[in-house]
Design brief:
0% strand, 143 residues
Length: 143
């Protein structure tokens, strides 16, 4: 072999060796973790009712996500508008939708369901019967 071929072969091997050394000694890049598709909670500002409902309805929401969301609903949006005589206010429908979402969620356990019912009923004693009925219907339809 000629010296130029040998020199070229050695330089290629040297480049490969340097590349391997850098590959194994460099800091590993952060692995991309599987993104949680549950909407992120907004700790700094008060999330809207719709944002909280989205968290509760998301199949990717954990039990903790559901608890945090329903507690924020009760804290910030827990007062249902007054009844219109003996009829419920149309605004109650969005709470009923939320109740159904909590009772049907795969990660909602008994503690979550009962806690939400108690807290919402305590804030709205005039709607206590309607809230209990909504929870019972939601639990009855749970698959």
């Amino acid at each position: 072999m000629s010296s130029t071929v040998l020199l070229g072969l050695m330089s290629v091997l040297l480049v490969i060796l340097i590349g391997l050394v850098l590959l194994f000694t460099a800091e590993p890049k952060e692995k991309k973790s599987k993104k949680n598709t549950a909407p992120q909670k907004l700790k700094e500002s008060i999330p809207t009712f719709e944002e909280l409902r989205t968290i509760i309805k998301s199949k990717a929401s954990t039990s903790d996500d559901i608890i945090d969301a329903y507690q924020m609903v009760v804290k910030h949006y827990g007062s249902i508008k007054e009844k219109m005589g003996i009829r419920v206010n149309p605004d109650f429908d969005r709470y009923m939708d939320l109740i159904f979402a909590v009772t049907r969620h795969k990660n909602a356990n008994t503690k979550i369901v009962i806690g939400f019912e108690k807290e919402l009923s305590a804030k709205n004693p005039k709607y206590e019967r309607e809230i209990a009925d909504a929870f019972n219907r939601g639990l009855s339809s749970r698959v």
